[in-house]
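As the next step, I wrote out a protein sequence along with its fold in token form, included below for the reader:
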Amino acid sequence: MEIERKYLINEKNVPANLHDYPCRNIEQGYLCREPVIRIRRDNEEYILTYKSKGLMVREEYNLPLTKEAYEHLKPKTDGTFIRKTRYMLPLRDNLTIELDIFLGSLAPLVLAEVEFPDEESANTFVPPVWFGEDVTLSSRYHNSTLSI
């Protein structure tokens, strides 16, 4: 189960010291959007993901892929292949901000996601002041939608 909130970030509000935090280079494409079936390269890890319908709460299953399987599936994806750099910023209460800086045709889009252990934590979350609009309940900012 994935429980997360998502926020638009004004690129002028992105922390200046991002390079002090761990980051990952991610590329992903979509084989299907309903249900969401995604392939992802996360640095040198390859993953096939299924996500159910939903906005803040939805089922998510991840299966490992080999690099060869990933490369085989990559040309079968639809739409724009998403590329982004994800910075992992620690937050209070053992939470982490996943700050995605999109590259290519989606630049200069910046989104922050915070995953929670339960719905109550998600519903009572107060974001940092530098976060922008809460877009959790907008499917417009799902990566599967951005790839269309």
Summary: The radius of gyration is 15 Å.
